[in-house]
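Lay summary. Proteins are chains of building blocks that fold into shapes, and those shapes determine what they do. In this project we predict the shape from the chain. Here is one chain we studied, written as its sequence of building blocks.
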Amino acid sequence: MDTTTDTQATVDKVADRALTTVDRVAQAAHDAIDRLAAKAGPAVEKLRGSTTQTADSLRAKADAFGEMEEQWVENTRGYVRENPLTAIAIGVLAGVLLAKLSSR
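And here is the predicted shape, written in a compact code that computers can read:
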């Protein structure tokens, strides 16, 4: 019966060591995840701020292009009103050029 008791004691020691090792590995994994989360949080916030700035910049540029387009259209309308025959001649010339280009 001594061997059974010794075997049981050895199994208990091995099980205790394995449990301790598993606990240490689990704690190390938790610590690593906590460190990673602490580093990722500020990076995500920085990225969020950067994308917000970029979106605002793009909206501002789109608004500026819209205003520039309106001004160009208004200038073109004024030119056509002041010079209707020239505008018609330019339109006809552009049509002839496009027709020649597209027929090739």
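What the prediction tells us: The CA atoms of residues 47 and 53 lie 10 Å apart.
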